[in-house]
Structure of Phospholipid/cholesterol/gamma-HCH transport system ATP-binding protein:
Amino acid sequence: MPDHDSLVRIKDLSFSYDERPVLDGINMEIPRGKVVAIMGGSGCGKTTLLRLIGGQLKPTRGDVLVDGRAVNRMGHEELYALRRRMGMLFQFGALFTDISVFENVAYQMREHTDLPEELIRDLTLLKLNAVGLRGAHARMPGELSGGQARRVALARSIALDPMLMMYDEPFTGLDPISLGVIGQLIRKLNDALGATSIMVTHDIHESLQIVDYIYFMSAGRVVAQGTPDEIRASTDPFVHQFVNAEADGPVPFHYPAPPYGEELLRGAAHG
Ligand SMILES: Nc1ncnc2c1ncn2[C@@H]1O[C@H](COP(=O)(O)OP(=O)(O)OP(=O)(O)O)[C@@H](O)[C@H]1O
């Protein structure tokens, strides 16, 4: 999806943990206003990629540009200022359990802004209203269902009106109805905030409903990409495996390991 006005541009990006290569020559464009999914088998480097975009990790080679600036070359202050404009919702983005729903959302504003208390109150209720939970503002997190708690975490991550939202497996552990609700919210909030969103997920069916573009990764590389219509029509074996939820195919089910027979024999020799 080449676009010169992309909010995020990933150029020839490689990354290794110590000596172990995880990402290898990634190129991606995330245009402004769009919701883009990144999919791929377990361990292929999706979360690592989000951490590189957020500046928590530095690439071994290549660049990550956000709003035209190379994140990997920013100093502390610039990076801190940029992170304030990014919202992140991680898989187990747990709420603080000992403070109310309202306080969980207001916390972000109290920490990062000098807004007066009345304004924080109004904005917090506005964010909770956007996820349908204004009425639950006085509840404690322990009194919420899993889907409701995820919605509060979502309200918290948009508290500062981010220009870029990053979601790491936002659907994990949700029942199908809550999953659909969160999916719709991700799309609606993106459009209402005029934001841009990147979502790492395993859920191809939800992605096809709500995103503008999908990148498929395998073993640290981009192996397929396209709009939902292109993905539905694709005959690419990687894409096919995802769309049809096949356990094995080009994306291996097994973590790389020596042949099983060999390992059993080795175990027997040791035992
Ligand atoms: N801090 C770390 N130090 C060393 N290796 C790591 C570290 N974090 C992740 N890895 C390894 O890097 C690879 C990519 O991990 P990453 O979490 O980015 O994958 P992923 O695609 O998000 O996986 P999943 O879908 O299972 O969450 C994995 O093989 C993982 O074991």
